[in-house]
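Feature request disguised as a bug: please show the residue count (109) next to UPF0122 protein BH2485 in the output. Example input:
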Amino acid sequence: MLDKTLRMNYLFDFYQSLLTEKQRKYMSLYYLDDFSLGEIAEEFDVSRQAVYDNIKRTEAMLEEYEEKLSLLAKFEKRSEILQQLKEAVDKQATSEELMALLESLDTLE
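Example output, currently without the count:
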């Protein structure tokens, strides 16, 4: 399992277009630019609690999107299969082994 920050960054990458502008800004500042809650609150002239609440709600939304759409899970699975393919090519695997890996890529939903 990815650590929380890395996971949120990935989820944000996949689903940011589904967020409001304010949610995108808060998440970007917090996770990508490493701003503190206080710095974000000062930037937007709101309370730290308002920023915290917004970020927590947005995190929950991102997790919900992932639960329904599984874009990150599919990306991770594709990456895993591609790594296996690279290793198979390096060790000069049989064409059957390579085809099996390619088919597993092809059948990913």
